[in-house]
Each structure stands twice: as C-alpha cells, then as structure tokens.
Amino acid sequence: MMLFSVVCHAQNPKDVDSFDYQVEQFSDIKVLRYQIPGWDKLTLKEQKLVYYLCQAGTSGRDIIWDQNYKYNLKIRKALENVYLNYKGDKTSPDWASFEVYLKRVWFSNGIHHHYSKDKIKPEFSQQYFNALLQSTKTVLEPYIVAILFNDKDGKKVNLDESKGLVEGSAVNFYEKGISHKEVEAFYAKKVSPEPEKPYSFGLNSKLIRNKKGQLEEKVWKSGGMYGAAIDQIIYWLEKAKTVAENKPQADALGLLIEYYKTGSLKTWDDYNIAWLQATEGNIDYINGFVEVYNDPLGYRGSYECIVQIKDFDMSKKMELVSNNAQWFEDNSPLMIAHKKKNVVGVSYKTIIVAGEAGDASPSTPIGVNLPNADWIRAAHGSKSVSLGNIVESYSKSAGKGRLEEFANDVEEVELAKKYGEIGDKLHTALHEVVGHASGQINPGVGTPKETLKSYASTLEEGRADLVALYYLYDSKIQELGLVDDWKKVGMESYDSYIRNGLMTQLIRIQLGADIEEAHMRNRQWVSAWVYEKGVKDNVISKLNRDGKTYININDYDKLHDLFGQLLREVQRIKSEGDYEAGKLLVEKYGVKVDQKLHAEVLERNKQFTSAPYSGFVNPVLVPKVNAKGEIIGIEVKQPKTFAEQMLFYSKKFSFLPLEN
C-alpha cells in the first residue's frame, strides 16, 4: 500500500465563502482549486473507494505525457531538475520566464499548448537554457534542447490535410515515417467478428513499423507499452474492487482490470456495457484510453481519469432531462430515417469531482458523455455527467467586465446575469444527454471515424450543441419545471452562444492563426452558418459603434428555425457518412478567422487581467492509519501552489521509463 502525505492547507467544508479558489495566474492560464462538498457524509468504505480510484488515476499520469509527445518525459525531468537545483540569480527576467515556461508545460502535460496544440516557445534564449542545464548538471540531449527553440514538431495535432494529418502531427501515436494513407490502409483490413458491433480499433495502441517494415500495433497494457504505469493502475483498481458499493460496480471494475491486463478491445466493449449498467451507488469514475481528440485520425484514446461523487440534489433535477430523452428525439427536426425509435438508457448526473488525472487534468471538461462507441450507445445507452463543483469553481473565480465589453446592450447584460448560469447548465445537460444520444447512422454506413475522418469530432460536438440550442428555446423545458421563463433563458443562451462563436472565443488564439481545436471550430461553424443563412431575413446583425463590433439577434424565432435546419443537415452528414459535405461545412465556416475582427477582439480584451484558460490542482486525499496500517479515515487537503502538486506527482507517480 502506498500511503503519502504532503504539506497542504486543510479544506474546511463549512467555510465555503472564504475558500480561496485561485492558486495563481501565469501566461494565458489561471490555476484554480475545487472543493469536495459532502466528503464528511461519505462512509469510510466510500471514502476508501474514492481514494483508491484517485490513486489508480494518478498512477497513469506519465502515460498522457508520453502520448502527447515522445520527448515530454525527458523534457519534464530536465526542467524540474533545473527548477529544484538552480542556485543562481532567481530575480532575473530570464529565470521568471523559465518558471512560466515550466508551469505552462506542466499545465499542458507537455510542450504543446493544451488547447491550440501549438508548441509552447520559451521566452528565454537557448543559450540561457544551456547555462541552466550546465549549472544544475542536468542532462538533456542537444537535439531535444534544439527542438524546444526551433520549429520542428510545431503542432501536436495537425488538421491541415495538405501537411499530412499524421505526418504533420507531433503526437506520439504513430512512429515517424508512417503516412496517413498507410494508417487508413492498415485499419481498412481489420474486421470485427460482429460487424454490427465494431471494435474501437487502434484505441489502445501506438502504430509502429517493425523490423520487416510492416505496420503493427504496440498495445498499451500490462507487459506491453506503458506496462509499468498500467500495473500500478491495476494495483489500485484491485483495491477499489474490494470496497465496491455493489456487485455490478465490482464486476465492471473487474472487466476494466482484465482489459488493462490483456489489451483486448472486446473486453473494453464488455467493460463499457457493464460500466453503463452499474448505475447504483454514490461513487463512479472514468478511467481508460477514452477521448480521441488528440489523434488527427480519431483512432487512439488519450489516457484520462475522473473520480466522481454523486450530487444528489442537482442530479434529481437533471433526471427530468434523461427521462424525456425520447420526447426530445421524437420532436427534433431530424429526418424520420435518422431518428432513433428507442432512445436507450440515457442517464445524467451532476457529480462532484474528487480527483482528475491524465487528459482531464489540469485542464478539465465540465461535462462528459460516454461511452463513445455508437453501437453501444444505440443498444445500451450512455452515461452523462456534469462536473458540478468544477463549474462552481469556474463561476466563483470568473473575471469581471468581459460581458459588459462585448455584449450589445444593457438588456443582453441583464439577461446574462439573470439567466446565464441556468442556461449554461441546461446547455451542458441537453448537449450531453440528448445531443450525443440522438440520431442514428444509416444501415451499412461506417462509423464517423471511418466516414468523416478528421472532421468527425468537430461535427459531433457541433451536432450535440445544435440539439441543445434547438431545445433551449422551447417551452418544453419550462413544462418540465427546469426554468421559470423558457423564452428568456433561450434568448440569453442564443446571445451568449453567437457572441462567443463569432467573437469572444477568439481571445484564445493568436492573431493570424486558424482555428484548430474541435470545440472552437464547432462553435464558429455553427454561428457563422446561421449568421450567413439569416442575412436575407436580418436574423443576426453585426453592428459597429465607435469602432467596436457588436452582435445583435433580431429574430430569435427564425434563429431557432435555422438551428433546426443546420441540425437536420449535420445529422444527415453523420447518418449518411457524407465526408465532402462535412468537410465543406467545417472548412468554409469553422477554420478561417476574420483577421480584422480578431485584432479588434484581442485589443478590446487587453484591459482584462483574467486569463482566458483555467485549470485545477486536485485536492489531496490523505489517509489516516492505525498501528496495523489500516485506513481509519481520509482527510481532504488543498495544495498551496501549482508547483507543489506537480513536483509531488513527479516524485510519487513517475513509473515509466523516459523512453517508451
């Protein structure tokens, strides 16, 4: 058993108002804290389950670093050695720049920006860095040092087909020299035993070229690639299984352990079905190679873990959305052939995060819907969660003034202040529960990964957004008792979505850059499409006052109709596997940026000190043990600094060799 302690501030669950949400801010990043409300109400057995699951999750931390870039672990070790051992001038601008660079690398789990996927360039010279290495007797190969400062491997995930989706991506999913076409040819030959239940080929492996020059998969499993870390994950999952809340939960954990031991994709499917059916109990989790956003071809899953405690009050309210999933499907603007006749097993909970790791930390989602396999979702349903305490921390730490700067008028500001919070929560719920669960693929059409390729992720996220937008402006949500004024909630949601999609999200990218990230792309192509299609009827106006651009929605009813039209078309694209139509939609509306407007937005945003990106340190669960070494209690503490937690993780959870 691995027990540990760390110097922290203890969390006081009764002292909510005085809780210090912000840890620090640097570059374009804010690091925040979150609380675990209700921790003391859990039984000791439940607390142990949470603790073991968190230990399992953090044990895989090195995996995401190596997945993100093959030299990340070497780079991290070198940077941390300099940070811990440098005895020179720590008041110089160069040292300050070094500290910021290290923190940015920590935040992104590697040297590529967590959102833009661009390589993070140091704001100190290579000469200075070499002096730091020499001063601290730190070894880092000169060719890797050079990469930090040159343009090699400049994009973790490249979506520009002209540069080669695989060839132009630095992500460590494919051995150098393997081409996009070779990958597609390799997987075109793979056939699942039951074609109607296709395996997630490539999900848990790196594709390499063997000594014979043939492609083969290097599987992430015990005894395989990442085996040393996976063995630690298995160790803690086995302990978690001993304190499972019920048999279905224990059975699911057993299948997850078997999957990590064997690497079997059939077992992965069996596990996902068992995990879906384990709905009772207060504790749940996400653990595995899950989301495929970091693979330009959409095959390989990034390692992540989120440990969850049920938020009973909010989950009860959100069950209303789940229970009416069939109504939403039946009343959607989709073509009849593309509607599900039986929406199965959509569960939705607002949860309290107790710990995150891998691709979910430090930068975290606010909502998750799993599993990703379409056939499992169709036959067995899905689980959707909203990360309630994460959303709460974002809200409590939000910067002031941006709304007033970019909103068109006072009415828009007042709507946002009154209905913005409930609108955001409902958007997340409708996006995850109804959006991702809706629609069906035509018989004989391949999976979106196969048919829509590099555009699959942004089209799916946009499709789910459109479902949410369509129903946010519908009296049904008031009939269900979710809001007290559906029209005003809908108006506010439309205002904020279009304002963000056409303008304010641009603060997240550098002037002159295209939009690369899947969610940013989808928000722009949705907004730009309805703007263009609504020009004739003056649905949305772009106004200019005193040299500043504002967006105004003139007709919410017609905008609602446009969202429905676009949803119908995007579902058709997915259902029919229409690659060319999907590509045209994304490339025409979602990639290129109005440079004049972008420059204006960045200039107007300079007055705000709050960083555009936020992420979190995790609370630390510290076991208390008796003389026999048995856990008799677990205390929640908060890290003092971002560096403290990152260095602690590197010291206690570095199980992989520097080259894998």
Features:
3-stranded antiparallel β-sheet, alpha+beta, 25 helices, globular, about 650 residues, 5-stranded mixed β-sheet, about 45% helix, disordered N terminus
Task: Report on the architecture of this protein.
The protein is 46% helix and 14% strand. With 660 residues, the chain is of the alpha+beta class. Among the domains are: 8-155 and 639-652, no CATH class; 311-605, no CATH class. The chain has a five-stranded mixed sheet. The relative contact order is 0.14.
Main sheet: strand order:
6-7-8-10-9
Number of helices: 25
Count of beta strands: 15
Strand proportion: 5-15%
Topology:
Elements: E1 8-10, E2 22-26, E3 29-32, H1 44-59, H2 61-68, H3 72-85, H4 93-108, H5 126-135, H6 142-149, H7 180-188, E4 205-209, E5 215-219, H8 227-242, H9 247-262, H10 265-277, E6 283-289, E7 303-310, H11 312-323, H12 325-330, E8 346-358, E9 367-370, H13 374-380, E10 382-387, H14 388-396, H15 402-406, H16 410-435, H17 448-451, H18 456-472, H19 476-479, H20 486-502, H21 518-533, E11 540-545, E12 548-553, H22 556-576, H23 579-591, H24 595-605, E13 613-616, E14 620-625, E15 631-639, H25 642-652
Parallel strand pairs: 3-13, 8-10
Antiparallel strand pairs: 1-15, 2-3, 4-5, 6-7, 7-8, 9-10, 11-12, 14-15
Concise overview:
The chain is an alpha+beta fold.
